[in-house]
Design a protein that fits this description.
By secondary structure, the protein is of the alpha/beta class. The chain has 9 helices and 16 strands. The protein binds NADPH dihydro-nicotinamide-adenine-dinucleotide phosphate (NDP). NADPH dihydro-nicotinamide-adenine-dinucleotide phosphate binds near residues 156, 160 and 222.
């Protein structure tokens, strides 16, 4: 018998999630049946969608997210003891998983790709769901061309920091918005963004006009709200907007969401294309995306910064810290 611990969400979050919304539950795992695998979590992800999806899931539920686990026992010859896998088992230290079709394809376990010596933690970050989000969400929807101007919001986070770097690989000029001057410096000095802007200070409309005097061709939107309206209203004819998320309102009351400046005039007169996506739609192409991401990280073209919190007991703090903007790059918990 293996003793396991997991975080159960007991209450729907109101505003910023609270510690009392979760319960840490200890339970015993049953012996493995045919095809089952016992994994010990090594790296657990904390992401904005854990907040965004909360209202739609009936409580109580086990807190989901991606994790990298080490196989401790196995009745599936494809996953031998000592190998590693990615699952969507989330905030638990031990779990039993099975490689089978799931109603939600995102929940199917998979083996780590050939990391060519890169660390397994990246499989919940740059070489996992967030990396694939940047790769497909930007390239497939924005269809950037060399020489174009790209703006990314949430630019210092897991997805945004990769989008900006991928845009540089494509030969674009890149402007990133982030929530502190230190983050802005990091974007410019470490990640090679052409310009970083702090969305919390100064006149954002004016600063963006100065940074992008020829207008904006592609916008990768992680945050939504008024910042996105300002950016979209400065776009060039035939510009493309990829809507990835709207973290600026995830902690708001869904019945009283903030209003932002109208977009329709810009959409019409500039003939803009605006498209949302969910990364799970690209699941059939994940393998191909992972190969490319490994190549870019390995060659140093893509810097995969991680913001590591140590300890299973600190998952909640890591989650809240990420929502508050503590992370540079991918927020992840080392178990
Ligand atoms: P991040 O690593 O970017 O972490 C969240 C960041 O959001 C924080 O670091 C903070 O940075 C920023 N933030 C917090 N509050 C606000 C606010 N009020 N206004 C603007 N920025 C804020 O998370 P991810 O990279 O994992 O996710 C980024 C976005 O992508 C989210 O909207 C998420 O929901 C979305 N997403 C969508 C997917 C899809 O399939 N469509 C898949 C994965 C992610 P700062 O200091 O700059 O404020």
């Amino acid at each position: 018998m293996v003793k396991a611990r997991k975080y159960v969400v007991k209450k729907h979050f109101q505003g910023v999630p609270k510690k009392e919304d979760f319960e840490l539950v200890e339970h015993e795992l049953p012996p493995l049946k045919d095809g089952e695998i016992l994994v010990k979590a090594e790296w657990i992800s904390v992401d904005p969608y854990l907040r965004a999806y909360n209202a739609n899931v009936p409580v109580p539920y086990d807190q989901f997210s991606y994790q990298v686990g080490l196989v401790k026992d196995s009745k599936d010859p494809n996953y031998p003891v000592g190998s590693r896998l990615v699952s969507h088992k989330g905030w638990c230290d031990y779990a039993i998983v099975k490689d089978e079709e799931m109603p939600n394809p995102a929940e199917r376990i998979y083996k780590l790709p050939d990391l060519k010596g890169l660390p397994p933690s990246l499989c919940v970050g740059a070489i996992g769901m967030p990396g694939l989000t940047a790769y497909f969400g930007f390239l497939e929807i924005c269809k950037p061309k060399a020489g174009e101007t790209v703006v990314v919001s949430g630019a210092a986070g897991a997805v945004g920091s990769l989008v900006g770097q991928i845009a540089k690989i494509q030969g674009c000029k890149v402007i990133g918005f982030a929530g502190s001057d230190d983050k802005v410096t990091w974007l410019e000095k470490e990640l090679g963004f052409d310009k970083g802007l702090n969305y919390k200070t100064g006149d954002v409309t004016k600063a963006l006009k100065e940074a992008a005097p020829k207008g904006i061709d592609c916008y990768f939107d992680n945050v939504g709200g008024e910042l996105s309206s300002i950016i979209i209203n400065q776009m060039n004819a035939k510009g493309r907007v990829s809507v990835c998320g709207s973290i600026s309102s995830y902690n708001d009351d869904p019945t009283k969401l903030p209003k932002a400046t109208l977009l329709q005039p810009a959409l019409v007169f500039k003939r803009l294309t605006i498209q949302g996506f969910i990364i799970w739609d690209y699941k059939p192409q994940w393998e191909e995306g992972l190969v490319k991401l490994v190549e870019w990280v390995k060659s140093g073209q893509l810097k995969a910064k991680e913001h590591v919190t140590e300890g299973f007991e600190n998952l909640f703090d890591a989650f809240i810290g990420m929502l508050a903007g503590e992370n540079y790059g991918k927020a992840v918990v080392k178990v």
